[in-house]
Amino acid sequence: MKPITQRLNNPGARIGAAFALVALLGGCATFSEDGGTRNVAEAVSNRGVTQSSTWIKTDADAERVADVVRKLLAQPLGVESAVQIALLNNRGLQARYAELGIAEADLVQAGRLTNPGFSFGRLHRADDVVYERSYLFDLMGLITMPMRKQIEQGRFVATQNRVTAEVLQLAVDTRRAWIRAVSAQQAANYAEQVRASAEASAELTRRMASVGNFSKLDQAREQAFYAEVTAQLARTRRAAVAERETLTRLLGLWGENITYRLPERLPDLPKDLREIKDIERIAMQQRLDLQAAVREAEALARSFGLTQSTRYFSVLEGRYMRNSESLAPRQTGWEIELRLPIFDSGSARVARAEYMHQQAVNRAADLAVRARSEVRDAWNGWRTSYDLARHYRDEVVPLRTRISEETLLRYNGMLMSVFELLAESRQQISAVVETINAQRDFWLADASLQFAISGRSPGAMPAAAAAAPAAAQPH
């Protein structure tokens, strides 16, 4: 066996060693086992979502998810179960998970060198034959590999943040849809009771009018009230169906699974609201959209540095040549290919990268200002809707109930007319409907507040102080 020094002095050995080094460098970048989903799951859990989510890649994964969904749908669907089904079964979320795979593939690609090239030529002149062989290697790719990997790593983390935000968005959207679906169903059930009561009142006035105890005007008023309540019942039923279908879409259900059952009413209000201190600071630390904007700015800063570094020389290739010619010694050597910055000095690329970085920085700053405002607005809506819901529950409804009882006693004692009794019944109907709406608005505000703190912009906040719909004002 030849000594090591002698073998390394051999050009063939040097080529082999170079290709071995290239293979080693190119094989260092590999895919992770979880595809980045572990970090997403941890970030979601740290922001209060206890339900699990999974990336469905195989038929076995799909079957496990289907089995979990069937078990959850076998009983009345609570809000937590609805969120769990959405995180497992929503196909839009599965499409978002695929973005993780794409981003990781880009990261792995950035850690791999461009495949070396080989060229072969055969020339002849009379009886002379010349063979030219070249081995090409991307030197610029090797030099810029660490920076390119760092850039793609930042983009991969930004993608993880975006997917985490999508998981949180789906969770809060499902929670909102469940609240609206249950409240719409509750309002439709109450509207059915109101219609039955109005029908009985209309029948009573018809009979009283037939014996001369009711005027035609009063009878027409009761008939009009019955007609209005009937129309409102149709609207509430339609609203209940629409809200339920919205929830069904978020759950990703179809076929026989759409016959799931919902609770009859919304959860009770909490006894007291928890204290949230330094809410703006918490939002600045946890808001995923803000973190994503900052990471994008950092990635563009690194990209700007790479563009500046390669401004003049964007192509740098090394080439090893080995030529042979008839009746002549073999030729070996090397060659470097470099693009000269004569016509394009790279100033346009540098300017574009700089402006993109400035744009990202300003977007992050603007998002931080808006996030602070949104979380303050969300907290104010949360507090106000809770106070209104408690006011209706503890003050308005008990007062209306007491008035109705007193009115009924006076009517039974023939101290009040039937007109006053019916008018008071309509007032009580209005109070009950407004109470349902206030309770719904609080739970919607609660979901929006949590998302404003830890997720991203919650969008339009529910107007807790908005006027009640037509069903709440039948009189």
The strand count comes to 4
Uncertain stretches: 1-9, 458-475
Q: Give the terminus-to-terminus CA distance.
A: 107 Å
Q: Fraction of residues in helices?
A: 55-70%
Estimated radius of gyration: 36 Å
Q: So what's the overall shape?
A: elongated
Question: What structural category do the secondary elements indicate?
Answer: alpha+beta
Overall pLDDT metric: 75
Please describe the biggest sheet, giving its number of strands, its sense, and whether it closes into a barrel: 4 strands, antiparallel
Tell me the fraction of residues in β-strands, as a range. 5-15%
Strand order of the largest sheet: 1-2-3-4
Helix-strand pattern, N to C?
Answer: HHHHHHEEHHHHEEHH
Put simply, the count of helices is 12
Question: What does it look like?
Answer:
The chain has a 4-stranded antiparallel sheet. It is built from 12 helices and 4 strands; from the N terminus they run H-H-H-H-H-H-E-E-H-H-H-H-E-E-H-H. The longest helix has 72 residues, at 139-210. By secondary structure, it is of the alpha+beta class. The chain has a domain at 273-311 and 354-475.
Task: Give a short overview.
The chain has helices at 4-9, 11-26, 37-46, 59-73, 79-89, 91-110, 139-210, 216-251, 279-286, 288-309, 347-412, 418-454; strands at residues 117-125, 128-138, 316-325, 328-338. With 475 residues, it is α+β, with helices and mostly antiparallel strands.
Keywords, please?
475 residues, four-stranded antiparallel beta sheet, disordered C terminus, elongated, alpha+beta
Fold topology:
Blueprint: H1 4-9, H2 11-26, H3 37-46, H4 59-73, H5 79-89, H6 91-110, E1 117-125, E2 128-138, H7 139-210, H8 216-251, H9 279-286, H10 288-309, E3 316-325, E4 328-338, H11 347-412, H12 418-454
Helix pairs in contact: 3-7, 4-5, 5-7, 6-7, 7-8, 7-10, 7-12, 9-11, 10-11, 11-12
